[in-house]
Amino acid sequence: MKNLTIVFAIIAVLAIGVGAYFLMQSPAGNVAVNKGPVATPTPVPSETVKPTEQKPVDKSMSVLGKSVEGRDITAYHFGEGATELLFIGGIHGGYEWNTVLLAYTLIDHLKANPSAVPKNIKVTVIPVLNPDGLFKVIGSEGRFAPSDVSQSQSKVGSGRFNANNVDLSRNFDCRWQANGVWQNKTVSGGSAPFSEPESQAIKKYIEKHKPAANVTWYSAAGGVFLSNCTAGISAETRMIANKYSAASGYSTYDTFDFYPLSGDMVNWFAKENIPAISVLLTDHTSTEWNKNLAGFEALLKYYAR
User: Fold this and answer.
1) Is the pLDDT at 56 greater than 70, yes or no?
2) CB 135 within 8 A of CB 257
3) Among 1, 77, 176, 203, whose Cα sits 20 to 30 Å from the Cα of 17?
């Protein structure tokens, strides 16, 4: 009897343990109550995370390279035609800051009037080929106003050169010399043709895209100067010079003979069989916008034929 009592006690303990186990597994927690299907709880929405605000991407812009000090050399493109017209400002940086402002004004005009570019044409504008030289005079990057220009003549003069103190329009492979001339001064043409990252950037772009024509703005002499390296002035160069001159009112000149030119960029374009002209604004402050817009539109009309 004693043994049976022990067995029944063990069975009772086991029964109580099993029952307690199943009660713990019931949906109600401690008491198993059949309340029908259990509703799926509604998930609590996570906190909305706002994306970091970014400036809108300008799809018309591309970066051609970097300056000595790491600033972007940018180009702006308008139209998708096969005939590319290339316009360049600011090769002499802050010394010719009005050519940069002229290029930015053209960019603004084309953004506001995209239909101005004929369907068969692509317009590319490089507003400043020497951003380090411009920074010396402006003190900032990108678009600026005339009031931002430093009044220090020493800054304006030094702003002609890049951060390696090289005159970029003496650094191209057309009659290049290590020591070039600017007015009555000796200037550096670099250690070799295309020794500078800025001239390398435009070289790569020209060799890849082969634009149909080029206009490069300088200051200040007031005139359209035709390009020529060693093979003479091409008929197409003379044609675009005459078109730009007739529309703008600038006089044309076959050669720039104020002082000897070595390593000139626009003359190197001629060596690469690209019709090119240098348009020199009349002074160092005005963009002469209306004159240059008329010249620009004359070239669009000519190449839209």
Assistant:
1) no
2) no
3) 1
